[in-house]
Write the structure tokens for this entry.
Amino acid sequence: YQVIRSELKSYSKELAKKKEIVVLTKADLAKPSEILKIRQFFSQKRKKVFVISAVKKEGLEELVKEIESRL
């Protein structure tokens, strides 16, 4: 995440200032303890993480609602 943010800022400071949506995909393959660590990391940064699994169709509705609310 930090590498991507740094590269984004190097590319465009204006783009780096825009609101972002953080999504953890393939949650069905991750251990619950790994997901918890990721949530805690982003919680410290005051960022919400959307945890989704397209295979299990989990978390998608919440993510779509968030996207819609920003359009």
User: Anything to note?
Assistant: The longest helix spans residues 32-44. Strands lie at 22-24, 49-51.
